[in-house]
Amino acid sequence: MTATGTVVVGADGSPAARTAIEYALQDAERRGARLRIVAAAPLPQYWADSYSMTAVPAPEEIKREMRTAARRQLEEVRRARPELAMVPVTIEAATGAPGPVLLDRPEAPICSCSATAAVARRAAPCSGRSGCTASSTRAAR
Q1: Which of 60, 72, 102, 130 could lock onto 126 through a cystine, CB 3.0 to 4.6 A?
Q2: How far is CA 56 from CA 45, 50, 119, in A?
Q3: How far apart are alpha carbons 123 and 119 in whole angstroms?
């Protein structure tokens, strides 16, 4: 399959993210596009209690865990929907609030669906050309 265009989906490891990945795979398959999964998580805050600082994972460890969670969800969807296995997929992990991370992607995606509520405040509905019923961070081009 020669893919044209890119569908971008945000994933945060939640059950809603699995649903978003499935929808995005269907959309990419229908369009003959690639799928890029952006697994994002905010960096944890350091909290001091009365005795010490709470240990927090390093950013690279957070990215690795997010990438692993997204890969697991992708594999679950592909097992349930084998007809979607031919869609080319890349997984990118980033730290930061999921909404801004998606908005800061350098590519111009066909549609960017997100399972995170963080996108809702800054997102506009899809333009209609994309056929997406989820939130879109950028209009289809």
Answers
A1: 130
A2: 8, 17, 25
A3: 6
Mind listing the pLDDT tens digit of every residue in the chain (141 residues)? Answer: 566 788 888 888 889 999 999 999 999 999 999 999 999 888 776 665 556 666 777 888 889 999 999 999 999 999 999 999 999 999 999 888 777 887 777 664 445 454 443 333 333 333 333 334 343 333 333
Residue corresponding to tokens 């506009």: 124
**Beta strands 89-95; 6-11: pairing state:** unpaired
Residue 46 carries which DSSP code? P
Q: Which residue has the tokens 């960017």?
A: 112
Spatial distance between the Cα atoms of 19 and 86, rounded to a whole number of angstroms: 18
Domains in the chain (CATH in brackets) are 6-45+53-136 (3.40.50.620)
